[in-house]
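Standup notes
- HV: blocked on the assembly model, inputs below
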Amino acid sequence: MAQVKLSAVRKAYGAVIAVHGVDLVIDDGELVVFLGPSGCGKSTTLRMIAGLETITSGTLHIGDRDVTALEPKDRNIAMVFQNYALYPHKTIRENLAFGLRMHKMDRAEIEKRVGEASSVLGLNELLDRKPRQLSGGQMQRVALGRALVREPEVFLLDEPLSNLDAKLRVKMREEIARLQKQVGTSMVYVTHDQVEAMTLADRIVIMKDGHVQQVGAPLEVYDRPANLFVAGFIGSPEMNLVEGRVVQGRFEAGEFSIDLPKGMTAEENSAISLGIRPEHIEIDDTASDIAFTADIIEQLGAQTLCAGTAQGVRLRVMTTRRDDVHRGSGFSLRFPANRLHFFNTETGNRISTEH
Ligand SMILES: Nc1ncnc2c1ncn2[C@@H]1O[C@H](COP(=O)(O)OP(=O)(O)OP(=O)(O)O)[C@@H](O)[C@H]1O
Ligand SMILES: [Mg+2]
Protein backbone atom coordinates (compact mmCIF):
# COMPACT_ATOMS: atom_id res chain seq x y z
CA MET A 1 0.00 0.00 0.00
CA ALA A 2 1.28 3.42 -0.81
CA GLN A 3 0.74 7.06 -1.42
CA VAL A 4 0.62 8.22 -5.03
CA LYS A 5 1.97 11.68 -5.79
CA LEU A 6 1.51 13.52 -9.08
CA SER A 7 3.59 16.67 -9.49
CA ALA A 8 2.79 18.90 -12.48
CA VAL A 9 1.98 15.80 -14.52
CA ARG A 10 1.31 16.86 -18.09
CA LYS A 11 0.46 15.05 -21.32
CA ALA A 12 0.81 16.42 -24.83
CA TYR A 13 -0.04 14.53 -28.00
CA GLY A 14 1.78 16.76 -30.47
CA ALA A 15 -0.04 20.08 -30.30
CA VAL A 16 -2.97 18.62 -28.33
CA ILE A 17 -2.58 19.07 -24.59
CA ALA A 18 -4.67 16.30 -23.04
CA VAL A 19 -3.62 17.01 -19.42
CA HIS A 20 -2.30 20.42 -18.45
CA GLY A 21 -0.43 19.70 -15.27
CA VAL A 22 -1.96 17.83 -12.37
CA ASP A 23 -0.75 18.18 -8.79
CA LEU A 24 -2.36 15.61 -6.56
CA VAL A 25 -1.54 13.41 -3.59
CA ILE A 26 -3.58 10.23 -3.21
CA ASP A 27 -3.16 9.09 0.35
CA ASP A 28 -2.39 5.56 1.38
CA GLY A 29 -5.68 3.65 1.44
CA GLU A 30 -7.67 6.43 -0.14
CA LEU A 31 -10.30 5.99 -2.88
CA VAL A 32 -10.01 8.90 -5.28
CA VAL A 33 -12.40 9.32 -8.20
CA PHE A 34 -11.51 11.25 -11.37
CA LEU A 35 -14.74 12.76 -12.64
CA GLY A 36 -15.50 14.84 -15.70
CA PRO A 37 -17.11 14.90 -19.12
CA SER A 38 -15.87 12.94 -22.12
CA GLY A 39 -12.44 14.03 -23.33
CA CYS A 40 -11.43 15.90 -20.15
CA GLY A 41 -8.31 13.78 -19.61
CA LYS A 42 -9.40 11.27 -16.97
CA SER A 43 -8.21 8.15 -18.77
CA THR A 44 -5.02 9.82 -19.91
CA THR A 45 -4.16 10.75 -16.33
CA LEU A 46 -4.96 7.25 -15.09
CA ARG A 47 -2.92 5.68 -17.90
CA MET A 48 0.04 7.87 -17.00
CA ILE A 49 -0.18 6.59 -13.44
CA ALA A 50 -0.32 3.05 -14.81
CA GLY A 51 2.62 3.65 -17.13
CA LEU A 52 0.57 2.90 -20.26
CA GLU A 53 1.16 6.46 -21.46
CA THR A 54 4.43 8.31 -21.12
CA ILE A 55 4.44 11.42 -18.95
CA THR A 56 5.34 14.42 -21.14
CA SER A 57 6.56 16.43 -18.14
CA GLY A 58 6.22 16.27 -14.37
CA THR A 59 6.89 13.44 -11.95
CA LEU A 60 5.02 10.52 -10.46
CA HIS A 61 5.86 8.89 -7.15
CA ILE A 62 4.35 5.70 -5.74
CA GLY A 63 5.41 5.39 -2.13
CA ASP A 64 9.00 6.59 -1.92
CA ARG A 65 9.84 5.61 -5.48
CA ASP A 66 10.01 7.94 -8.44
CA VAL A 67 8.25 5.77 -11.03
CA THR A 68 7.96 8.46 -13.74
CA ALA A 69 10.07 6.50 -16.21
CA LEU A 70 9.33 2.95 -15.04
CA GLU A 71 7.55 0.30 -17.10
CA PRO A 72 4.00 -0.62 -16.02
CA LYS A 73 5.17 -4.00 -14.71
CA ASP A 74 7.67 -2.31 -12.37
CA ARG A 75 5.13 0.06 -10.79
CA ASN A 76 3.27 -2.44 -8.63
CA ILE A 77 -0.15 -1.27 -9.76
CA ALA A 78 -3.11 -3.28 -11.07
CA MET A 79 -5.50 -1.87 -13.61
CA VAL A 80 -9.08 -2.94 -14.32
CA PHE A 81 -10.33 -2.03 -17.78
CA GLN A 82 -13.83 -1.35 -18.98
CA ASN A 83 -13.87 -4.41 -21.25
CA TYR A 84 -12.48 -6.80 -18.57
CA ALA A 85 -10.11 -8.45 -21.10
CA LEU A 86 -10.56 -11.98 -19.69
CA TYR A 87 -9.03 -14.93 -21.53
CA PRO A 88 -12.04 -16.65 -23.12
CA HIS A 89 -10.58 -20.16 -23.28
CA LYS A 90 -9.28 -20.26 -19.74
CA THR A 91 -11.38 -21.06 -16.69
CA ILE A 92 -12.03 -18.41 -14.11
CA ARG A 93 -9.45 -20.02 -11.83
CA GLU A 94 -6.85 -19.88 -14.61
CA ASN A 95 -7.81 -16.32 -15.44
CA LEU A 96 -7.20 -15.31 -11.85
CA ALA A 97 -3.93 -17.20 -11.59
CA PHE A 98 -2.48 -16.34 -15.00
CA GLY A 99 -0.74 -13.08 -14.13
CA LEU A 100 0.83 -14.61 -11.04
CA ARG A 101 2.09 -17.60 -12.98
CA MET A 102 3.69 -15.27 -15.49
CA HIS A 103 5.53 -13.75 -12.53
CA LYS A 104 6.73 -17.27 -11.65
CA MET A 105 5.07 -17.16 -8.27
CA ASP A 106 5.15 -20.17 -6.04
CA ARG A 107 2.21 -22.54 -6.73
CA ALA A 108 1.00 -22.66 -3.12
CA GLU A 109 1.04 -18.87 -2.89
CA ILE A 110 -0.97 -18.60 -6.12
CA GLU A 111 -3.56 -21.01 -4.77
CA LYS A 112 -3.80 -19.09 -1.52
CA ARG A 113 -4.28 -15.74 -3.25
CA VAL A 114 -6.81 -17.07 -5.77
CA GLY A 115 -8.72 -18.71 -2.93
CA GLU A 116 -8.80 -15.52 -0.89
CA ALA A 117 -9.83 -13.32 -3.80
CA SER A 118 -12.57 -15.67 -4.94
CA SER A 119 -13.96 -15.85 -1.39
CA VAL A 120 -13.97 -12.08 -1.00
CA LEU A 121 -15.67 -11.66 -4.38
CA GLY A 122 -18.08 -14.58 -4.12
CA LEU A 123 -16.52 -16.46 -7.04
CA ASN A 124 -15.97 -19.85 -5.39
CA GLU A 125 -18.81 -21.54 -7.28
CA LEU A 126 -17.63 -20.16 -10.60
CA LEU A 127 -13.95 -21.08 -10.62
CA ASP A 128 -14.26 -23.93 -13.12
CA ARG A 129 -16.42 -22.03 -15.61
CA LYS A 130 -15.29 -20.14 -18.69
CA PRO A 131 -15.95 -16.39 -19.03
CA ARG A 132 -18.78 -16.88 -21.55
CA GLN A 133 -20.68 -18.84 -18.90
CA LEU A 134 -20.77 -15.79 -16.61
CA SER A 135 -23.07 -12.79 -16.35
CA GLY A 136 -21.72 -9.28 -16.84
CA GLY A 137 -21.54 -8.66 -13.12
CA GLN A 138 -19.72 -11.93 -12.50
CA MET A 139 -17.19 -11.13 -15.23
CA GLN A 140 -16.69 -7.77 -13.63
CA ARG A 141 -15.90 -9.49 -10.35
CA VAL A 142 -13.38 -11.76 -12.04
CA ALA A 143 -11.70 -8.70 -13.56
CA LEU A 144 -11.51 -7.19 -10.08
CA GLY A 145 -10.26 -10.49 -8.69
CA ARG A 146 -7.45 -10.55 -11.17
CA ALA A 147 -6.33 -7.16 -9.90
CA LEU A 148 -6.81 -8.23 -6.29
CA VAL A 149 -4.58 -11.34 -6.46
CA ARG A 150 -1.68 -9.19 -7.56
CA GLU A 151 -1.77 -7.47 -4.15
CA PRO A 152 -0.68 -4.23 -5.78
CA GLU A 153 0.12 -0.96 -4.04
CA VAL A 154 -2.54 0.82 -6.08
CA PHE A 155 -5.69 -0.18 -7.97
CA LEU A 156 -6.55 1.77 -11.11
CA LEU A 157 -10.07 1.39 -12.53
CA ASP A 158 -11.27 3.04 -15.74
CA GLU A 159 -15.08 3.15 -15.99
CA PRO A 160 -15.27 -0.46 -14.84
CA LEU A 161 -19.06 -0.54 -14.57
CA SER A 162 -20.11 1.06 -17.84
CA ASN A 163 -21.08 -2.26 -19.46
CA LEU A 164 -23.53 -3.17 -16.71
CA ASP A 165 -27.22 -2.41 -16.36
CA ALA A 166 -28.33 0.24 -13.90
CA LYS A 167 -29.24 -2.12 -11.06
CA LEU A 168 -26.05 -4.12 -11.29
CA ARG A 169 -23.99 -0.94 -11.43
CA VAL A 170 -25.35 0.08 -8.04
CA LYS A 171 -24.61 -3.35 -6.60
CA MET A 172 -21.08 -3.51 -8.01
CA ARG A 173 -20.43 0.04 -6.87
CA GLU A 174 -21.21 -1.03 -3.33
CA GLU A 175 -19.02 -4.10 -3.70
CA ILE A 176 -16.07 -2.09 -4.96
CA ALA A 177 -16.39 0.39 -2.10
CA ARG A 178 -16.62 -2.43 0.45
CA LEU A 179 -13.74 -4.32 -1.08
CA GLN A 180 -11.50 -1.29 -1.23
CA LYS A 181 -12.07 -0.53 2.44
CA GLN A 182 -11.58 -4.18 3.35
CA VAL A 183 -8.22 -4.60 1.62
CA GLY A 184 -7.20 -1.00 2.29
CA THR A 185 -5.37 -0.52 -1.01
CA SER A 186 -5.31 2.96 -2.55
CA MET A 187 -7.61 3.19 -5.55
CA VAL A 188 -8.05 5.61 -8.42
CA TYR A 189 -11.39 5.22 -10.15
CA VAL A 190 -12.40 6.99 -13.35
CA THR A 191 -16.01 7.79 -14.21
CA HIS A 192 -18.11 10.45 -15.92
CA ASP A 193 -21.06 9.55 -13.68
CA GLN A 194 -21.31 12.03 -10.86
CA VAL A 195 -23.57 9.81 -8.76
CA GLU A 196 -20.98 7.05 -8.93
CA ALA A 197 -18.32 9.56 -7.91
CA MET A 198 -20.35 10.94 -5.01
CA THR A 199 -21.18 7.51 -3.60
CA LEU A 200 -17.75 5.88 -3.98
CA ALA A 201 -15.15 8.53 -3.40
CA ASP A 202 -13.23 9.60 -0.35
CA ARG A 203 -12.25 12.53 -2.55
CA ILE A 204 -13.33 13.57 -6.03
CA VAL A 205 -11.03 15.19 -8.59
CA ILE A 206 -13.20 17.07 -11.06
CA MET A 207 -11.61 17.70 -14.45
CA LYS A 208 -12.48 19.72 -17.52
CA ASP A 209 -10.44 20.19 -20.71
CA GLY A 210 -7.34 18.69 -19.11
CA HIS A 211 -7.48 20.98 -16.06
CA VAL A 212 -8.35 19.99 -12.52
CA GLN A 213 -11.30 22.13 -11.42
CA GLN A 214 -11.63 21.08 -7.80
CA VAL A 215 -10.48 18.38 -5.41
CA GLY A 216 -12.59 17.59 -2.37
CA ALA A 217 -14.71 15.16 -0.41
CA PRO A 218 -18.10 14.52 -2.05
CA LEU A 219 -19.99 16.82 0.29
CA GLU A 220 -17.35 19.54 0.06
CA VAL A 221 -17.75 19.80 -3.70
CA TYR A 222 -21.53 19.58 -3.35
CA ASP A 223 -21.68 22.27 -0.65
CA ARG A 224 -18.98 24.57 -1.98
CA PRO A 225 -18.41 24.14 -5.71
CA ALA A 226 -15.31 26.11 -6.67
CA ASN A 227 -16.69 27.39 -9.95
CA LEU A 228 -19.66 27.38 -12.32
CA PHE A 229 -18.51 24.21 -14.04
CA VAL A 230 -18.40 22.17 -10.83
CA ALA A 231 -21.68 23.74 -9.70
CA GLY A 232 -23.39 22.51 -12.85
CA PHE A 233 -21.68 19.14 -12.93
CA ILE A 234 -22.17 17.93 -9.36
CA GLY A 235 -25.70 17.25 -8.22
CA SER A 236 -28.74 15.75 -9.88
CA PRO A 237 -30.98 17.39 -10.92
CA GLU A 238 -28.57 20.18 -11.79
CA MET A 239 -28.16 23.32 -9.75
CA ASN A 240 -30.20 26.28 -10.99
CA LEU A 241 -27.82 28.91 -12.34
CA VAL A 242 -29.09 32.40 -13.09
CA GLU A 243 -26.98 35.11 -14.71
CA GLY A 244 -27.51 38.61 -13.40
CA ARG A 245 -25.90 41.74 -11.99
CA VAL A 246 -25.21 43.44 -8.69
CA VAL A 247 -27.59 46.36 -8.24
CA GLN A 248 -27.54 48.25 -4.92
CA GLY A 249 -26.63 45.30 -2.79
CA ARG A 250 -29.03 43.00 -4.56
CA PHE A 251 -28.76 40.33 -7.22
CA GLU A 252 -30.90 41.23 -10.21
CA ALA A 253 -31.78 39.29 -13.34
CA GLY A 254 -34.48 41.20 -15.18
CA GLU A 255 -37.47 41.28 -12.85
CA PHE A 256 -35.94 38.67 -10.61
CA SER A 257 -34.24 40.13 -7.58
CA ILE A 258 -32.88 38.81 -4.30
CA ASP A 259 -30.80 40.22 -1.43
CA LEU A 260 -27.10 39.45 -1.50
CA PRO A 261 -25.65 37.89 1.64
CA LYS A 262 -24.23 40.46 4.06
CA GLY A 263 -20.65 39.23 4.00
CA MET A 264 -20.41 39.18 0.25
CA THR A 265 -18.33 41.72 -1.61
CA ALA A 266 -19.17 42.21 -5.27
CA GLU A 267 -18.72 45.37 -7.26
CA GLU A 268 -21.79 47.34 -8.25
CA ASN A 269 -23.01 46.31 -11.70
CA SER A 270 -20.60 43.37 -11.94
CA ALA A 271 -21.83 40.26 -13.76
CA ILE A 272 -22.48 37.48 -11.28
CA SER A 273 -24.43 34.24 -11.32
CA LEU A 274 -26.72 32.94 -8.63
CA GLY A 275 -26.77 29.21 -7.95
CA ILE A 276 -29.28 27.27 -5.89
CA ARG A 277 -30.01 23.56 -5.98
CA PRO A 278 -33.56 22.42 -6.79
CA GLU A 279 -33.71 20.58 -3.46
CA HIS A 280 -32.80 23.73 -1.50
CA ILE A 281 -35.57 25.96 -2.77
CA GLU A 282 -38.48 25.93 -0.31
CA ILE A 283 -42.08 25.95 -1.44
CA ASP A 284 -44.53 27.87 0.65
CA ASP A 285 -48.18 28.77 0.09
CA THR A 286 -48.18 31.67 2.50
CA ALA A 287 -44.90 33.55 2.15
CA SER A 288 -45.05 36.11 -0.59
CA ASP A 289 -41.38 36.10 -1.52
CA ILE A 290 -41.10 34.99 -5.11
CA ALA A 291 -44.10 33.85 -7.13
CA PHE A 292 -43.49 30.70 -9.16
CA THR A 293 -45.70 28.92 -11.67
CA ALA A 294 -44.90 25.31 -12.49
CA ASP A 295 -45.36 24.14 -16.07
CA ILE A 296 -43.62 20.74 -16.05
CA ILE A 297 -44.15 18.26 -13.23
CA GLU A 298 -42.06 15.12 -12.90
CA GLN A 299 -43.21 12.67 -10.25
CA LEU A 300 -40.15 10.76 -9.04
CA GLY A 301 -41.97 8.89 -6.30
CA ALA A 302 -40.33 10.13 -3.14
CA GLN A 303 -40.07 13.63 -4.57
CA THR A 304 -41.60 15.87 -7.20
CA LEU A 305 -39.53 17.95 -9.60
CA CYS A 306 -41.27 21.10 -10.80
CA ALA A 307 -39.94 23.21 -13.64
CA GLY A 308 -41.40 26.65 -14.10
CA THR A 309 -40.90 30.37 -14.09
CA ALA A 310 -40.40 32.85 -11.26
CA GLN A 311 -40.26 36.54 -12.17
CA GLY A 312 -39.12 35.68 -15.67
CA VAL A 313 -36.43 33.21 -14.58
CA ARG A 314 -36.57 29.48 -15.34
CA LEU A 315 -36.12 27.37 -12.22
CA ARG A 316 -36.37 23.75 -11.18
CA VAL A 317 -37.66 23.04 -7.72
CA MET A 318 -37.60 19.72 -5.89
CA THR A 319 -40.22 19.10 -3.24
CA THR A 320 -41.54 16.20 -1.20
CA ARG A 321 -45.08 17.47 -1.79
CA ARG A 322 -46.92 15.63 -4.52
CA ASP A 323 -50.69 15.40 -4.58
CA ASP A 324 -51.25 19.15 -4.58
CA VAL A 325 -48.55 19.89 -7.16
CA HIS A 326 -49.90 20.15 -10.70
CA ARG A 327 -49.14 21.82 -13.99
CA GLY A 328 -50.10 25.45 -13.58
CA SER A 329 -49.76 25.34 -9.78
CA GLY A 330 -48.60 28.63 -8.30
CA PHE A 331 -46.33 28.77 -5.26
CA SER A 332 -44.21 31.17 -3.33
CA LEU A 333 -40.54 30.26 -3.23
CA ARG A 334 -38.10 30.89 -0.45
CA PHE A 335 -34.37 30.83 -1.07
CA PRO A 336 -32.62 30.11 2.25
CA ALA A 337 -29.62 32.45 2.49
CA ASN A 338 -27.23 29.68 3.53
CA ARG A 339 -28.09 27.70 0.40
CA LEU A 340 -27.17 30.41 -2.09
CA HIS A 341 -24.05 30.22 -4.23
CA PHE A 342 -22.59 33.12 -6.18
CA PHE A 343 -20.07 33.04 -8.99
CA ASN A 344 -18.23 35.61 -11.05
CA THR A 345 -19.89 35.05 -14.43
CA GLU A 346 -16.77 35.99 -16.40
CA THR A 347 -14.17 33.91 -14.58
CA GLY A 348 -16.67 31.32 -13.34
CA ASN A 349 -15.05 31.40 -9.89
CA ARG A 350 -17.00 31.12 -6.69
CA ILE A 351 -17.46 34.37 -4.76
CA SER A 352 -16.96 33.96 -1.06
CA THR A 353 -20.03 34.86 0.99
CA GLU A 354 -18.34 34.48 4.35
CA HIS A 355 -17.59 37.40 6.61
N1 LIG B 1 -3.43 9.07 -28.73
C1 LIG B 1 -3.97 10.28 -28.73
N2 LIG B 1 -3.60 11.22 -29.65
C2 LIG B 1 -4.16 12.46 -29.65
N3 LIG B 1 -5.06 12.87 -28.75
C3 LIG B 1 -5.47 12.00 -27.82
C4 LIG B 1 -4.96 10.66 -27.76
N4 LIG B 1 -5.54 10.03 -26.71
C5 LIG B 1 -6.40 10.93 -26.18
N5 LIG B 1 -6.36 12.10 -26.83
C6 LIG B 1 -7.12 13.31 -26.49
O1 LIG B 1 -6.85 13.66 -25.17
C7 LIG B 1 -8.01 14.17 -24.54
C8 LIG B 1 -8.29 13.41 -23.26
O2 LIG B 1 -8.66 12.08 -23.57
P1 LIG B 1 -9.07 11.02 -22.44
O3 LIG B 1 -9.19 9.70 -23.10
O4 LIG B 1 -8.13 11.14 -21.31
O5 LIG B 1 -10.49 11.55 -22.02
P2 LIG B 1 -11.50 10.95 -20.93
O6 LIG B 1 -11.72 12.01 -19.91
O7 LIG B 1 -11.05 9.62 -20.46
O8 LIG B 1 -12.85 10.83 -21.78
P3 LIG B 1 -13.97 9.63 -21.83
O9 LIG B 1 -14.94 9.92 -20.72
O10 LIG B 1 -14.61 9.87 -23.18
O11 LIG B 1 -13.27 8.32 -21.73
C9 LIG B 1 -9.12 14.06 -25.56
O12 LIG B 1 -9.29 15.34 -26.14
C10 LIG B 1 -8.60 13.08 -26.57
O13 LIG B 1 -9.11 13.33 -27.85
MG1 LIG C 1 -11.78 7.66 -20.69
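- HV (later): unblocked. The pocket of adenosine-5'-triphosphate (ligand 1) is lined by residues 13, 16, 18, 36, 38-44, 192 (CB under 6 Å). The first strand starts at residue 4 and ends at 13.
- Next: hand off to the docking folks.
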